[in-house]
Specification:
Strand content: 15-25%
Order of helices and strands: HHHHHEEEEHEEEEE
Number of domains: 1
Helix content: 25-40%
CATH architecture: 3-Layer(aba) Sandwich
Largest sheet: 6 strands, mixed
Distance between the termini: 75 Å
């Protein structure tokens, strides 16, 4: 027992096959054992996304109701999923220790909802659908797509000016905007004079908020800390920002009261 403890510990771990402390920790904790992907579970979750879209479309006003749900599901649920699956990314989707199936569901659900409403955005902003450009970091073959990015999703050309649009959805009645999205909007405006808005679709309560991100001040009373989000600071969307009820017809661009 006179041997130096640190040297003994290292010799012991080496004797059972580990040259580094990290390898030993991973092995003993079982963290190097990758759980099998439950594809039946994923199929069920994908069906749920399709069901969510179906429920929205069933009550949608004629001004934005879609008539192509089967093709829409194929293009914006099945196809993205198959690309992600064939790229071998599923086992790597483990944000904050969550199961890959859950990470995929959260991302694909938000992606699908945004795609569903994009034609409605073209009508609200009174622009051609072709003038709405995808600028988000959504390379479905890259793991970076599924990590947090401050970059907006869309860019709209309106009256000769570019407007960036962050599209996000809420499903539990808690409607927040992450702080890094606001910081990015301010940076973009300072660098390019391009405005950024967030269109937040609250599917739990059936309403849509439009928030101009680049004008939010650091001392705004709506900044809060969410303990359930690891103490993150977020911008809580006040009810006054909600400009559209999903059971109603589309609002006009003027109804949004944006500073462009």
């Amino acid at each position: 027992m006179s041997e130096n403890p640190a040297q003994y510990f290292k010799k012991y771990r080496s004797s059972i096959g580990f040259l580094s402390q990290n390898d030993a920790k991973q092995y003993l904790a079982g963290k190097d054992v990758t759980p099998a992907i439950d594809f039946n579970y994923i199929n069920g979750l994908n069906k749920r996304i399709e069901g969510i879209i179906g429920k929205i479309n069933a009550v949608a006003d004629s001004s934005y109701k879609r008539s192509d749900l089967s093709k829409f599901a194929e293009d914006f649920i099945c196809t993205p999923y198959n690309i992600i699956k064939s790229s071998g990314l599923l086992p790597r989707l483990n944000n904050q220790g969550r199961r890959p199936e859950s990470v995929l569901f959260s991302w694909l659900r938000g992606y699908t909802v945004a795609e569903y409403f994009t034609p409605a955005f073209s009508k609200i902003f009174d622009v051609k659908l072709s003038s709405i450009t995808q600028i988000g970091d959504d390379d479905l073959r890259s793991i970076e797509t599924f990590r947090r990015s401050p970059k907006a999703d869309l860019e709209i050309e309106k009256n000769g000016k570019l407007l960036r649009v962050e599209v996000q959805s809420g499903f539990q009645g808690v409607n927040d905007i992450k702080e890094h999205k606001v910081r990015e909007a301010r940076r973009v405006y300072e660098d390019t004079q391009c405005r950024t808005i967030c269109i937040h679709i609250d599917l739990f309560n059936g309403q849509v908020a439009v928030v101009q991100l680049d004008t939010i001040q650091g001392n705004d009373v709506n900044w809060v800390t969410r303990q359930q989000m690891e103490g993150q600071t977020v911008f809580s969307i006040d009810q006054n920002y909600f400009k559209w009820h999903l059971l109603d017809e589309l609002p006009s661009f003027a109804d949004l009261e944006l500073e462009l």
